[in-house]
Structure formats: structure tokens, C-alpha cells
Specification:
The complex is a heterodimer.
Chain A: H1 7-10, E1 30-38, H2 64-88, E2 93-96, H3 100-103, H4 105-113, E3 117-120, H5 134-149, E4 155-156, H6 167-173, E5 178-179, E6 189-191, E7 198-200, H7 209-215, H8 222-237, E8 243-249, H9 257-270, E9 276-277, H10 281-299
Parallel strand pairs in A: 1-2, 1-8, 1-9, 2-3, 4-5, 5-7
Antiparallel strand pairs in A: 6-7
Helix pairs in contact in A: 2-9, 8-9
Chain B: H1 12-15, E1 35-43, H2 69-92, E2 98-101, H3 103-108, H4 110-118, E3 122-125, H5 139-154, E4 160-161, H6 172-178, E5 183-184, E6 194-196, E7 203-205, H7 214-220, H8 226-242, E8 248-254, H9 256-259, H10 262-275, E9 281-283, H11 286-296
Helix pairs in contact in B: 2-10, 8-10
The chains are: A alpha/beta, B alpha/beta.
Chain lengths: 300, 302
């Protein structure tokens, strides 16, 4: 097999100021894209994130405290999310390990019944580099979700956004239409794979409660301030071109009692503005695909 | 104290003597200005096949698996989108730009370089790639190639140099002067330019900053975005006060992928809203500061 493409071979450098502006329907200015992440942390493996350092500094297995920290999100925190989004009439994207359909059918079923968009997010939580059979894992993830929801997911997000160089090729082969792993632009883009074009949607590792709370250790209210600042700037820029403000949340972080009110306040703030669409990834893709196809045709 | 000397190059104190800023002959800027501010934008190209120089997101369960696409993309965002937000600030406030740029980035991001050539920015050599200078195979070749590509693309040889991550070997200042650079900004040891001895003629060191720098504040210390503005203002007010009798220099250093993010850009803009109006503050490039210091400052050591 030939060497897989490096990122620059998949996408040429392009300055946003050199592109024609994208326009949203009905005079809308900005899409607010919410991604909820539901995961499975296998007690037999190292836990994905640590909040409390082990007494001697060396994490030992089993790591029950962090298993429980995550489990709280699935038992309690996620129900705060379901309640919030039902009240607001928002159907977010659910980036979920496929294993939640097996381990947490109650949670996965609620997301399905509430009309959330299921996005492939690996079978369970761990860097994709460690998968012995990545192609098989991707196919299995997509198949499980398709069986559970009746619809093959359009989108994919690697756990922790991880990819190997061949991942986009394997995803396109499994029927994935868009990925969130490439946080390199404010707009959707099209990248090259060996199986044809693949769309990237502007996901975020900045407006994301993992870096803000777990890595950078900000106060609980900072997610609100950060998203306000992010939204204000993008909203101001959206007078000229369509913009996308993305927020990624985890039930074991933003679903905590001391943080949930700041998450709710984000939506109160955003909804004070005119021209905001609460679209999930599949909705953004449906709008963007004809535009991308027309651009490809024009370039040919 | 006598420290063991390296076989090639010099120890820092062999390049310059200790000197207390209060005991020096006063420096005077033109037209009664008290201080000069130079604002430096760092443009890098990250090699997707190497470990990323910095990360915003760690992978689940830790480690650093390769390739690291999310953090590569996070950086690439700066050059596709973030840079253009910073450029608007420089344009709106008429700030003469200084760009530290990796040699390889000069050709990777042509639109960005073109926009700055049109605005007559100063380009500063910043390593051919974003790699620690101690790990570069041939330091002289790297320094030379960085100058050559800048001369070819921008039409001018760079006069200044900043090592990637401010890294140096014991020999870096010697090589820089031999390769025709006029100043280096790696030594964050003063509020005024200083002369460094080399095995040839001396080289100027420009006051740069690891403190008013978004890498340190946002990525290492994990402050809120607003800290960038607050710290820059605190730094400015103190240096302004200190510069009453003798001129001082303040540096501000930003990276498009950090301060160019939507949620941070306004805190960068706010700095210039506050300080650009001051009549006795000069907004200069590194080269302008170097020219002034060579003309009016102490003579280089023999």
C-alpha cells in the first residue's frame, strides 16, 4: 500500500479571506452547533481523563474513582442535558462510542427518541492509534449505530479527535460523510481521500469543556465567558459570511451541579440574537453538500 | 563564579557583563518619546509527521500518539483564519508589523506573506522549521536557509532572529553575526537593547518577552483570554513609568492560532485601543529600534 496522505496533501492551504462567502438560508447569520459526547470508559483500561491525581502520583488499575467520575455523567449528568435540550427544542449531535448502545441502552435510546443526530465516535474511548484493526473498528461502530437508530451515521469524530494518517480514507470507505476532527477552519471544507471527497465541519477543541475545565482548570463560569466571547466575535463577522459557533460538552463535566447553570446561560445568551440556527452536523452537511458539489463542478 | 566553558561558543556572561539598568547612561528616543513598543506575530509551519511543538488537547488516557491531527489542525487554523483577525487590528491601529516566521512557512502560506510584504512588515528569521535549535542538524545551514528564503520571497534579508522557542546553542550568536543578522531577541534579560560579544563583531539583543506572550499565558499557565489584555496593560503602565528618565522597550508576542481565535481576538485589540493614542509611545519594528540604538546608544564592545 502506498503511504497515506499527510494533511497538506489532503487539503491545500487556503486563506479564509480569499474565499467567496457562504450564505445560510432565510437570511440566517450563524449556526450554533452543539455536540454532546457520551462515552464508555472500560474499567479494565486506563481511564480517559483524571481529575484527582493518585496519592503517589502513579495511576494504578483499576482506577475506580475516575470510572465513577465518568459514570456520574451517565447516571445523572446526561439527564440534565436531555432536559435542557428538550426544553429548548434543540436536537444536538451526539458523538458517542458505539458501545453506549450496548452498555447504556437507556441513555442511547433517549437520545434516539429525542431525535438527536448520532455521530460515530469509535467503539469505546481511547486513542485511535491504539486500535489493532482500525478499519474493522470503524465499520463495526457504524454498523452498531445504524442498527440501533435505523440510520447510518453521517458524521465521525475520533476519540479525543485522534486520527492516524489513513483514518480519513478508512472513514470514507465506511460511508462517513463528514468529520469533526479537523479543527482548522471556521467553515466546512472538503478534503481528499482515496475514496473520494470527505467534508470537514468546524468542530472545536477550544469551546470544549475538556480543555477548559479538565486541562486548563478554569473556574466553572469561564465556559460561559469563553463561549460568549467566541460567539460575539463570530456573530460580528457573520454580517459578511456564514459563521459556525460550536460547543462540545461532556455529561461528567458540564452536567455537574456546579456547572450546569453556566451551560444553560450559554443558550440564553445565544438565543437573544437574531439569525441563529441550532443545527446539528447532519443538517449543516445537508445544506453544505450542494454548495460543495457546485464548487467542485465549477473548478473542473 | 567560574563555570566550565563550552568547547565551542561562549557562556552568557562571557558575552555581556552584568549591568544594573539604573546605573546606565540614559537612552533618549526621538521627539521626547518615553518608550517603544514592538509587536511580534509568530508564524510557524508544523510538520504533521513530527510531535507537535505545543498542544491544546491531550489524547484520551494520555501519551502522545502520532500523528497528532487535532493539534496540527488547531495550529493550521491560525494561518487559515486567525491571522486575518490579527491583521485587522494592525491595520486599524496602524501598527507596523513584525513577523517571526519559520523558513518553511514562508512558502507554505504565500497569501499571508504577501499581505505582510504589501504592508512593509519586518520579517524576522525564526528557524527554518519549528524545531529546537539544539536539535537542528546543521545550525548554520538552518540560519542561512532562513535568510535566503526570506530574501527570495520578500526581497529583503532579515535583520533579526528569534530561535524557535527562544532556543540557542552556545554558538548561536556567533553564527548569527557571521550570517549577517543585526540582532537577536532570544535573551529576555533587559528592558533595553544590549550588545552581546561574539567571536566576530558584537550583535544586538532586542528586549523580547516570554511573559507578554500568548504561549506562556494561554497554553502553559492556562489563564483566561482576558489575562492577555490585563497583563499587557500592567506591563505597559509599569514600563511607561520606569521610562521617565531613560527609554525602555516593551514587546508583545502573539501567535495566530492563539490570540487569533474568535474568543481571544478582542483582548488583543483592546490593548491597542488603550495604548495607541499615547503621544509619547512609539510603535516601531525591531529593525527601527536597532537603528535607533546603534545611532544613539552605547558603542559596541571591542
Amino acid at each position: 500500500m502506498a503511504n497515506p496522505m499527510i494533511p497538506r496533501e489532503r487539503a491545500d492551504y487556503s486563506a479564509i479571506v480569499d474565499r467567496p462567502p457562504l450564505k445560510l438560508p432565510g437570511g440566517a447569520r450563524i449556526v450554533f452547533w452543539t455536540i454532546v459526547n457520551y462515552e464508555v470508559w472500560d474499567i479494565g483500561k486506563p481511564m480517559a481523563r483524571q481529575l484527582l491525581p493518585a496519592p503517589t502520583g502513579v495511576p494504578l488499575m483499576p482506577d475506580v474513582v475516575h470510572w465513577a467520575f465518568h459514570e456520574y455523567g451517565m447516571r445523572v449528568g446526561c439527564w440534565r442535558f436531555f432536559e435542557l435540550f428538550k426544553r429548548l427544542g434543540i436536537r444536538p449531535t451526539l458523538a458517542a462510542n458505539a458501545r453506549i448502545c450496548e452498555d447504556y441502552p437507556r441513555v442511547a435510546g433517549q437520545a434516539r427518541d429525542d431525535g438527536w443526530e448520532f455521530m460515530g465516535h469509535a467503539y469505546e474511548q481511547g486513542p485511535i492509534h491504539k486500535e489493532p484493526d482500525q478499519a474493522g473498528m470503524i465499520m463495526r461502530t457504524m454498523d452498531i449505530m445504524e442498527r440501533f437508530t435505523g440510520k447510518r451515521p453521517a458524521g465521525w469524530l475520533g476519540p479525543g479527535l485522534t486520527q492516524t494518517l489513513e483514518t480519513p480514507d478508512l472513514l470514507a470507505a465506511a460511508g462517513v460523510k463528514y468529520i469533526g476532527d479537523w479543527v482548522y477552519d471556521d467553515e466546512p471544507t472538503v478534503i481528499r481521500t482515496t475514496k473520494g471527497p470527505l467534508v470537514t465541519l468546524p468542530y472545536t477543541i477550544e469551546c470544549n469543556d475538556i480543555p477548559v475545565m479538565i486541562i486548563q482548570h478554569h473556574n466553572s463560569d469561564y465556559l460561559l465567558q469563553l463561549v460568549k466571547d467566541q460567539f460575539d466575535r463570530l456573530y460580528a463577522e457573520s454580517d459578511k459570511r456564514a459563521k459556525f459557533c460550536t460547543l462540545a460538552i461532556h455529561p461528567y463535566i458540564s452536567g455537574q451541579p456546579h456547572r450546569i447553570k453556566y451551560l444553560e446561560a450559554i443558550y440564553d445568551y445565544v438565543n437573544e440574537h437574531e439569525g441563529v440556527l441550532h443545527w446539528n452536523g447532519a443538517q449543516i452537511l445537508d445544506w453544505y453538500l450542494p454548495i460543495a458539489n457546485a464548487q467542485t463542478k465549477a473548478a473542473e | 563564579m567560574n563555570f566550565p566553558k563550552p568547547s565551542v561558543g561562549m557562556l552568557p556572561n562571557d558575552r555581556l557583563d552584568y549591568s544594573a539598568i539604573v546605573n546606565r547612561k540614559p537612552l533618549k528616543l526621538p521627539k521626547g518619546a518615553r518608550m517603544a513598543v514592538w509587536t511580534v506575530t509568530n508564524v510557524e509551519e508544523w510538520d504533521p509527521t513530527q510531535t507537535m511543538p505545543r498542544t491544546v488537547l491531550t489524547p484520551p488516557a494520555g501519551g502522545s500518539p502520532m500523528p497528532d491531527i487535532p493539534n496540527w489542525c488547531w495550529h493550521e487554523y491560525g494561518n487559515r483564519v486567525g491571522f486575518w483577525r490579527l491583521l485587522q487590528v494592525y491595520d486599524d491601529f496602524k501598527i507596523p508589523g513584525v513577523m517571526n516566521i519559520n523558513g518553511s512557512a514562508v512558502e507554505a502560506f504565500p497569501d499571508l506573506v504577501k499581505a505582510c510584504v504589501e504592508r512593509n512588515w519586518e520579517f524576522v528569521g525564526h528557524g527554518f522549521t519549528q524545531r529546537n535549535m539544539q536539535k537542528v542538524e546543521n545550525e548554520r545551514e538552518d540560519i542561512r536557509k532562513s535568510a535566503q528564503v526570506l530574501e527570495r520571497v520578500t526581497g529583503k534579508r532579515p535583520r533579526g532572529w528569534l530561535g524557535p522557542g527562544l532556543t540557542e546553542t552556545w554558538e548561536t550568536p556567533d553564527i548569527l553575526v557571521e550570517e549577517g543578522y543585526d540582532y537577536v531577541a532570544d535573551w529576555v534579560l533587559d528592558d533595553q537593547p544590549v550588545w552581546l560579544k561574539t567571536r566576530g563583531k558584537p550583535i544586538l539583543n532586542m528586549p523580547y518577552t516570554q511573559e507578554c506572550n500568548d504561549v506562556a499565558m494561554m497554553l502553559i499557565q492556562h489563564h483566561k483570554a482576558s489575562e492577555f489584555y490585563e497583563r499587557a496593560m500592567d506591563q505597559f503602565e509599569q514600563i511607561y513609568k520606569d521610562a521617565k528618565g531613560s527609554a525602555r522597550v516593551m514587546a508583545i508576542s502573539v501567535h495566530p492560532y492563539i490570540m487569533g481565535a474568535p474568543h481571544r481576538a478582542k483582548y488583543f485589540r483592546k490593548i491597542f485601543e488603550k495604548i495607541r493614542k499615547k503621544r509619547d509611545v512609539l510603535f516601531w519594528t525591531g529593525a527601527q529600534i536597532a537603528d535607533w540604538f546603534v545611532k544613539t546608544g552605547p558603542k559596541p564592545p571591542q
